[in-house]
Every structure is written in C-alpha cells, then in structure tokens.
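Hi there,

I know you've been waiting on this one. I reran it after we fixed the sequence typo, so this is the corrected version. Both the input and the resulting structure follow.
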Amino acid sequence: MGRRFEEIDWRETPIGAISLRRRLDPVLKVDVYEVKLDDEFLMSSLFTVAEVELARLALAELSEDDLDVAVGGLGLGYTAASVLDDPRVRTLTVIEALGEVISWHQRGVLPMADRLVGDPRCRLVQGDFFAMVDESAGLDPQTPGRRFHAILVDIDHTPRHVLHPSHAAFYTSAGLRRLAAHLRPGGIFALWSDDPPDDRFAAVLTEVFAAVRAHVVTFDNHLTGGTSANTVYIAARATAGTTADG
C-alpha cells in the first residue's frame, strides 16, 4: 500500500492535461489509480467491473479458437487484461491515442502493466483509433487490411458524450459501417458506455449489424452506498453470405 496521495504523472496533450494519480481509499484500504483529463475523471481502478465485462461479454459470443482481437482505448488496462484471460485469444492489438498512457504501462506503474507488457500476444499501438477505422490500412499498422474476430471500444464516456468532437462521426451508421469492415464475417463489436441503454443508438447499430444487444452491468459503489451501472453494447456482424450489415 502506498502513500495517501501521489501524482504519478501530469502532462499536456493535444486533448488537454492528462494526469495519473494514486490515492489510498480510506474505506477499502486499497490503492486506487485514477486518470483525469483536465478536471474531468476518465477512469478509476476502483470501478472496473464493466471494463472486464466488456471483454467477457464480447468474447462469449464467439465460438472459434485462435481469436484476433483489437481494443480501442488502453486506459488502465483492465479490458485488455481480461481479453488475455481468454486462452483462445491468439493476438491482441490495443490502440491508444496518448503515448503517455502507453508509457505508464511500459514503465510498470499500473496494476495491469506487467500482464500486458509481458504477454507476447499483446501489442500496444499508439494511434488515433477513430482515424484508423476510417483508413483502408485498418487497425494494425503491421498488417494493412487485417480483420479481427472482435473489436472492443472504451474511449468516450458515451456515444453522445465524447471526449473530442471528431469522435462523434464514429457513432453514426456511416462510421459504424467503416468499423464493421474491419471485422471478420460474424465478428463482434463491443462498446462500453457510462449511460443507461440508449434506444436511438441501438437503432443506429441495427442499421449496420445483424444482431444487437445492450447489457446493463451493475456493481457496488461504496462512494454512494448503493449500486452503479454501465452499459455494454454487443453487435454482431452478419456471417458470410448475408447482407444484414450492409
């Protein structure tokens, strides 16, 4: 257990000042890692249930072995680590826009760092996930045009509350069609959201994908004395020979 409060890193980035801090939770008596963008909290190691479920729910939809998975947004690494917990995963490509976040893992200052950096299946790639979706080269700079069995995204707060205005186009039918092009037939797109299920966004997903479900993930929140919830959207691309995903 560390000191009561420590700011591990603080840097200016193109989207604002990002900081990583560690504090001792006075109730649970555990170290909590938190990331802030300017004055806004982005993530906390105190609440990781939905990040883990993002990976578990997505991969549960797949029956194949030797899975190739991409994750948009590295963060504290809990989604990526959960992907690696599945022995069927052959490769994991994690795309993170901020080199500062990747460096936290490479320096070993985060709880999941050794699991990610030390696993030969995992590769951390610095890049703008949304821009890469729009490019024909795709999500793997080493293998242009590569398709994945699953693509998991945890970057924005919600499809409507985005970290940068340029992200908004991704959550349209046109943006999601570009994303689907990087999936294998029958592949899975999974998205984390901080809001309850959004019927309007689910309708957009159904314009592109063959099957869509919104899972509400609940977890205990000792800060409020009750429970909190996030949403995980799971969308399946049509299998070969069908046209449901356009």
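Quick highlight: The first helix runs from residue 49 to 60.

Best,
R. S.
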